[in-house]
Design a protein that fits this description.
The complex is a heterodimer of chains A (186) and B (90). Chain A has helices at 12-23, 28-40, 42-59, 66-87, 95-122, 125-128, 143-156, 158-180. With 186 residues, chain A is mainly α. Among the domains of chain A are: 12-59, no CATH class; 97-130; 143-177. The radius of gyration of chain A is 51 Å and the shape is rod-shaped. Chain B has a domain at 1-31. Chain B has 90 residues and is an all-alpha fold. Classes of the chains: A mainly alpha (186), B mainly alpha (90). The interface between A and B is large, with 44 and 45 residues.
């Protein structure tokens, strides 16, 4: 509140000299003249007092925290970028091409390659010939699944088949062992 | 940017491999005889109605089968086919 108080009015012809006096920028003669005037002029003394009170606050640089300057820098860079963008607005049309469109095009290319492989490998039959039967996707999920369902009967009989195979192997081994023994006729 | 590119590449590779696998299965199906196709479909329907413990057992048998030496697998397969042909004749 004190800072906002109006300055005391000085004598018109001394106003400018008093400011220079305050800064110590007047010559010797001027300084003496002003000092002499000040001894006799109450208003000019108060004006000078006000200058001594107000001017340091106006001229003194406030110390800003580092965060302020960081923020200031970011804002400045951002504003410059915006300005640049407005200047070359047409570039934004091509910007996405550099960021997400390149990998997207890559994916599309892979998809096209896949379709090409499918067509080439299946001699177009996969697309041209409609299937007369509907095959569950679970069967055709991969080659492994197809083989599993194809071999399911055999898997159920696997234990028995292995036993038979083991027995046959034992018999064969027994016969060959007998044949190797001297005096035994196979 | 790099992370996104890698993501797209991984997706593309996944699609490629999936398609390759599905194509292999399609090819496998096309090369089956009508009898074999019928057997696959019949087994699939049967599989759907199996209780979970039987499914589990069959999966285990399948894993065991795949771990068997090729020579033994061929021998067992041949034996099974002979027995099946014998049953079909009867």
């Amino acid at each position: 509140m004190k800072n906002s108080a109006p300055l005391e009015t000085a004598c018109k012809q001394y106003e400018e000299d008093l400011v220079l006096h305050y800064y110590g920028e007047n010559g010797d003669n001027e300084r003496r003249r002003v000092e002499q005037h000040l001894t006799s002029c109450h208003s000019c003394r108060r004006f000078l007092g006000d200058l001594q009170r107000v001017l340091p606050q106006m001229a003194g640089a406030e110390e800003m925290p580092q965060a302020f300057w960081d923020n200031y820098y970011r804002e400045t860079v951002s504003k410059l970028a915006e300005q640049e963008e407005r200047k070359f607005w047409w570039r934004s049309l091509f910007n996405p091409m550099r960021t997400w469109m390149a990998p997207a095009f890559g994916t599309v290319a892979v998809a096209v390659l896949v379709v090409g492989l499918v067509i080439g490998k299946g001699n177009l039959r996969l697309f041209v010939e409609p299937r007369g039967e509907s095959i569950p996707r679970e069967i055709l999920a991969d080659q492994n699944q197809l083989e599993f369902f194809e071999s399911m009967d055999m898997l159920e009989a696997l234990d028995r088949l292995e036993n038979q195979d083991d027995q046959k192997t034992d018999t064969t081994n027994g016969e060959s062992n007998r044949a190797e023994l001297p005096g035994v006729v196979a | 940017m790099k992370r996104r590119t890698l993501l797209f590449l991984a997706l593309g590779l996944f699609l490629l491999l999936s398609a390759q696998s599905a194509t292999a299965a399609d090819d496998g199906w096309r090369h089956l005889t009508p009898t074999e196709k019928e057997r696959v479909l019949r087994n699939y329907r049967r599989w759907q109605n199996l209780p979970p413990q039987d499914k589990e057992h069959l999966r285990e048998e399948w894993n065991r089968w795949q771990r068997l030496p090729k020579e033994r697998r061929d021998r067992l397969k041949q034996r099974y086919n002979e027995q099946r042909r014998g049953r079909d004749r009867d």
